[in-house]
Amino acid sequence: MYRQSTREDTSNFLILIAEDESEIASILDAYLVREGLRTVHARDGAVALELYKTLKPDLILLDVKMPNVDGWSVLSQIRTHSHIPIIMLTALDQDIDKLMALRVGADDYVVKPFNPAEVAARVRAVLRRTNKNVQAEILRIGALHIDLQSHVAYVTRQEEKILLALTLTEFRFLAHMARAPMRVFSRSELIDACLSESDPLDRTVDSHVSNLRKKLGQVGAAHLLMGIRGVGYRLDAASQQQ
Description:
Blueprint: E1 2-3, E2 14-18, H1 22-34, E3 38-42, H2 45-55, E4 59-63, H3 71-79, E5 86-90, H4 95-104, E6 108-111, H5 116-132, E7 138-141, E8 144-147, E9 152-157, E10 160-163, H6 168-178, E11 185-186, H7 187-194, H8 202-218, E12 225-228, E13 232-235
Parallel strand pairs: 2-3, 2-4, 4-5, 5-6
Antiparallel strand pairs: 1-3, 7-8, 8-9, 9-10, 11-13, 12-13
């Protein structure tokens, strides 16, 4: 089901409601449309993933327990390549579930039964926050540019853009450290932020970082990625090329 707001709204945001309970989805739809938002509804996780790929919504309201593909799997798959805002909807009121949602990459977490007006307000708040940060979707560390939306990294040399051929994990490491340049990240921090779906060892981090530094070196930017003995790694825009 696809429905457009009858209220004029210059932002024209599209919300994907991934919820298998039709009554809940209809209530959310009504409140979001009242807020001037457009909506599209998916009744299971597989359909949600398909609508996400084809319609490119601005935010997803994602139920945890859905048929075919559950909400955790949907969230995990989307987070491998997108930073689209996602608010989880669930009847599970356990701290471990909330922590898991945030760790996998959810932007917010709402427990059923909920006040639909509050959900609509949270949607608006997340949209305002992410809309303000559009310019921050490209992170810059010296000549290094990291485009979070396009999922590419490149180095500028004069007027030329030189793309880095990074793996997904290498891009995650680079983007995570670029959000806080000069800060030293421990191996355990990088594991939690970038490799949470597996159970890697510290040497796995070292291997990924080593490969990343080699690729930066191929474009003359190896000096940006520094290892701090006994602590971890950091990106350093102030360092000099070696």
